[in-house]
Amino acid sequence: MESETTIDTQELGEKIVRVLKTIYDPEIPVDIYELGLIYDVFVNEDLEVRILMTLTSPNCPVAETLPVEVEEKVKSLDLVKDAEVEITFDPPWTQELMSEEAKLELGML
Length: 109
Fold this sequence. Notes:
Elements: H1 2-5, H2 9-20, E1 38-43, E2 48-53, H3 65-75, E3 82-87, H4 100-105
Parallel strand pairs: 2-3
Antiparallel strand pairs: 1-2
């Protein structure tokens, strides 16, 4: 029974990534994960999540709403106790951070 109380943080991390892939940048038809906007996802033993992310630009029209959407969607996962999004522009986002899939989607390959 004990193994059921131990939650695999890697598995939870994968669930978080799946949620992140449902959130899209309003200006680019690619999800924020494939765009490379998510720099890091930390899950501690208390199942609190910290997401380090960036925006395509500091003047991004969704600078106020996108982090809130990310927080709310991640918090909606059953196992997550809390989620916090930290926005950084260091390093600044560039197209190099996009996945091959995103580049293909946008006709950049």
